[in-house]
Design brief:
The protein is of the alpha+beta class.
Length: 142
């Protein structure tokens, strides 16, 4: 399939705005922690709404966490960039997320354009929707 067709498909199936969220942090002055995720506008807004306003920790290993006093402190470490449809195609091609269930590239299964609220692409460490969903579930159980 040509790149032109893929780009056209994304414009047809994903006529929402897409965002690249790039996370850059450091753990205890010893190692850099980086990652990114691509969300559509609805996913981005949902992610923003789920970040706790109170203090929380982002787990980056078996015993390592980065502590945040509030939502604003995390957001200082996330750079947001609006993506074009062509750029979304690149991220999907090279960093497709395992959480994307099905994308209708060939127009044979229109009902499967996108299933579930998951990122189209991701890489590295990133405090994503799933991370905050689990945190919120844990809070409800306490």
């Amino acid at each position: 399939m040509s790149k032109k067709t893929e780009t056209a498909t994304i414009k047809r199936d994903f006529n929402k705005q897409f965002y690249l969220l790039k996370y850059d942090s450091n753990w205890a002055g010893e190692m850099d922690i980086n990652g990114f995720i691509v969300y559509d506008k609805d996913e981005y807004n949902e992610w923003l709404s789920k970040i706790p306003k109170r203090s929380f920790e982002f787990g980056i290993g078996t015993n390592e966490t980065i502590e945040y006093r509030n939502k604003a402190e995390l957001l200082k470490q996330v750079k947001v960039t609006v993506l074009t449809a062509e750029e979304v195609t690149f991220f999907y091609k090279f960093f497709a997320s395992n959480s994307v269930k099905c994308i209708d590239w060939d127009n044979k299964a229109k009902q499967f354009a996108r299933i579930e609220t998951k990122p189209i692409a991701r890489y590295g460490h990133f405090p994503d929707l799933d991370y905050f969903d689990v945190m919120l579930e844990d809070d409800e159980q306490d």
